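A reminder from the course coordinator: this example appears on the midterm review sheet, so study it carefully.

Given structure:
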């Protein structure tokens, strides 16, 4: 803070009379309103990334030369970690249109006019702002390319798709991601891609004219991206009619700055970026919501999923990525994203694993989508109980995989005389273990882990999975655990399960029901 005050003094000639810290948004930068003795205000900024600050400073100075509506840079420290910019006030577009947003998309005429003003001004910064711009100053990269697309698609996969536990084939999905990335980058891209163009990053002056902030993540890229980002923001709840009007306002404004494609081509290209932006947003919601547990992002997910449902209605003719569409369709049908009625309907038939082959080949799925181990089937699960004193059981399949669970952390009935000659299959031992409860808590995550593994093995057509439970003597806890997990797998998945209680000399086969 002291260095920021010194920067202000060297620029203004005196220390600020008043300093007010402003609320932070999504970045780590700190903002302060600095007020002089005469009442004039500026914004002081303390950053944490020199490269990010440099990008903003350079872009702001470049856009100012192009006479665009952005904050002007007034002073910069030598290390570029502190700078002073003009004060654009406190009224953002996000706040100005809150009435329409909070009523589910019923924007009044005044709010609609603010949206129209903003969307008409967007091509100005995209096209005029790109002229003469040295892209090497952009952060973290100078251009929107296939690598950046794949990064965001995988962000969606790891931060949103995987936490839902939906089943998908990694390689087939990756192949469709690559097709998608190629499609998004196939046309000439010479606009300034704002990247974070949203209502929070638009400030309004007293006449309602828009000024743009937080463009430091911008780069060379397609103009469709920002339009998709703005109009398909899930929480905005723009109606189809208003969204269509704003699209046409943008299209007509764009004509002033560059040659535009036909309306049909424009709409088709825009749809590609709307889908991409929707997946990108879900990735962010997943990270901020599922991992960081921020309530706002979790609450935003249903609206984004509804946007996705609407997009999927366009089908393969618009989005030629069959496997990706299949995964997304199943994603939108998950119980947590459907109404109570839809959830009940989805669950009515119980758990199904063989109704269809979700990995059926398609010529547009791309290369390298199958594992050489796929497709053999059917699966047999081998469940063992054993004593650690006599070693872990050998795997007869030769896979060398599966699970070994150690039951020795739970209460041991074998320590008590009445149970020493009994096993985990006998009713007195079962009652002892279940009344004690430790074994039940131990098995809860085991069921979840094994269920996921069995489900994936069935879908991939693998033939063998080994699940082993060990304890001190291989008589009580391991026998109980192995028997109950085996019966659970058999009942839930209707597949062959072989149970071997090695130290008891007991081998049982549960055959799949026809």
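Designed residues:
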């Amino acid at each position: 803070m002291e260095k920021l005050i010194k920067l202000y003094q060297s620029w203004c000639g005196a220390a600020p009379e008043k300093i007010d810290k402003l609320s932070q948004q999504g970045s780590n930068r700190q903002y302060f309103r600095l007020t002089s003795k005469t009442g004039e205000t500026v914004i002081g900024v303390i950053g944490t990334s020199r490269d990010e600050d440099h990008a903003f400073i350079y872009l702001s100075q470049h856009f100012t030369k192009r006479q665009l509506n952005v904050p002007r840079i007034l002073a910069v420290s030598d290390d570029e970690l502190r700078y002073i910019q003009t004060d654009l006030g406190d009224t953002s577009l996000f706040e100005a249109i809150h009435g329409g947003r909070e009523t589910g998309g019923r924007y009044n005429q005044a709010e609609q006019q603010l949206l129209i003003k903003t969307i008409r001004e967007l091509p100005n910064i995209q096209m005029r702002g790109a002229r003469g711009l040295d892209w090497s100053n952009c952060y973290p990269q100078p251009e929107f390319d296939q690598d950046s697309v794949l990064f965001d698609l995988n962000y969606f996969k790891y931060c949103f798709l995987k936490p839902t536990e939906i089943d998908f084939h990694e390689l087939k999905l990756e192949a469709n991601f690559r097709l998608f990335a190629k499609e998004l980058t196939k046309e000439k891209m010479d606009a300034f891609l704002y990247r974070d163009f949203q209502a929070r990053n638009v400030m309004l002056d007293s006449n309602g004219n828009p000024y743009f902030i937080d463009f430091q993540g911008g780069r060379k890229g397609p103009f469709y991206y920002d339009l998709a980002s703005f109009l398909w923001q899930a929480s905005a709840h723009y109606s189809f009619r208003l969204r269509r009007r704003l699209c046409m306002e943008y299209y007509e404004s764009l004509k002033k700055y560059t040659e535009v494609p036909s309306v049909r081509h424009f709409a088709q290209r825009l749809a590609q970026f709307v889908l991409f932006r929707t997946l990108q947003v879900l990735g962010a919601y997943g990270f901020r919501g599922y991992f960081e547990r921020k309530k706002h992002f979790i609450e935003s997910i249903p609206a984004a999923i509804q946007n996705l449902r609407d997009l999927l209605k366009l089908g393969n003719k618009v989005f030629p990525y069959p496997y990706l569409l299949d995964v997304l369709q199943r994603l939108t049908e998950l119980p947590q994203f459907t109404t109570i009625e839809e959830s009940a309907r989805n669950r009515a038939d119980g758990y199904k694993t063989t109704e269809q082959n979700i990995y059926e080949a398609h010529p547009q799925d791309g290369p390298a989508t199958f594992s050489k181990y796929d497709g053999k089937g059917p699966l047999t699960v081998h469940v063992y109980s054993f004593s650690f004193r006599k070693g872990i059981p050998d795997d007869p399949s030769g896979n060398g995989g599966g699970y070994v669970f150690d039951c020795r952390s739970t209460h041991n009935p074998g320590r008590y005389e009445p149970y020493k000659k009994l096993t985990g299959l006998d009713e007195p031992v079962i009652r002892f273990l279940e009344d004690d409860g430790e074994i039940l808590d131990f098995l809860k995550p085991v069921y979840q882990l094994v269920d996921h593994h069995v489900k994936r093995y069935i879908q991939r057509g693998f033939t063998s999975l080994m699940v082993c439970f060990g304890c001190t003597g291989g008589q009580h806890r391991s026998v109980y655990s192995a028997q109950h997990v085996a019966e659970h797998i058999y009942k839930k998945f209707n597949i062959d399960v072989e149970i071997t209680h090695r130290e008891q000399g007991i081998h049982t086969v549960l055959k799949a029901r026809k």
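The longest strand covers residues 380-387. Confidence is low (pLDDT under 50) at residues 339-372.
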